[in-house]
Amino acid sequence: MKKKFIIAGLLFAAFGLTKMTAQINFGDKAIGAVQKGVTGFTFSNADAAKLSKEAVDKLDAEHEIAGPSDGYTLRLNRVFGKHASGDGFTLNYKVYKLKEVNAFATADGSVRVYSGLMDIMDDNELIAVIGHEIGHVANNDSRDAIRAAYQKEALMDGVASQSATVATVTDSQLGKIGSAIIDSKYSRKQESEADLFAYNFMKKNGYDVNAEESAFRILAKMSEGSQASFIDQMMSSHPDSQKRADEAKKRAEKDGLYKPYVQQKIVNTVPAATTTKKATTTTKKKTTTAKKK
Ligand SMILES: [Zn+2]
């Protein structure tokens, strides 16, 4: 029952917020409560969305983003584009060209996928990982995380005590909040629930659910090898990959869907048919935007 809810309301809960323009205003009472360490102060989904958007905009400005005709972007469009908008919600997604194996989604519906993740995951595995991150948004984990970061970086500094609006967050505080988004530490329960969300998302949309187990096996294997440093971030925020792979497998078995997963070919290059020139390099260091159009 809960599953259905979450899936049906994937947006609703968090993604529809991008349209909201509500002012972020905690009010004196809420601020006082926070300063006294009282939890549960008013921090609405709209507040989380607005602050997340600001932090993500800053992260975007600091990272190399794959351009519209980059192979990574084209692949993400193909794999994930159809899930990016629906009734009342819009997710905005981009690829960060970084070797790290990571992905995150924020309360404003921003999804950021690192090219390093796309290098090692096939389409189904990618959906499993992105689905997991979206699960954190749909389950309001992302909202709670940014609220915690805001409390830590802004309110606890006393900077915002003069004013009740998030607009008082400084650029450097916003940077710290951005880092907190990337390194979000979620509880084991939140992780399991996000895994379940990904599984159900895949099942509902007709993907091979066994790719979820496979994705976690890959992460577990990587953490033991020489590439471990690239997955530090994702591993630190998503521990116990082996165990979570086992859980994904169990879910698939229970549903009668289990079958050992075979990874498909991973192609992050621009499809030949869409390029006008032959033998152009597929990954350029810097891609200018919208040059073709
Ligand atoms: Zn997670």
TrEMBL record:
Binds 1 zinc ion per subunit. Residues 94-251 form the Peptidase M48 domain. Residues 1-22 form the signal peptide. Gene3D superfamilies: Metalloproteases ('zincins'), catalytic domain. InterPro entries: Mito/Outer_Membr_Metalloprot, Peptidase_M48. Residues 283-293 have a biased composition (Basic residues). Residues 234-256, 272-293 are annotated as: Disordered. Residues 272-282 have a biased composition (Low complexity). Keywords: Hydrolase, Metal-binding, Metalloprotease, Protease, Signal, Zinc. Its EC number is 3.4.24.-. This is M48 family metalloprotease. It comes from Flavobacterium chungangensis.
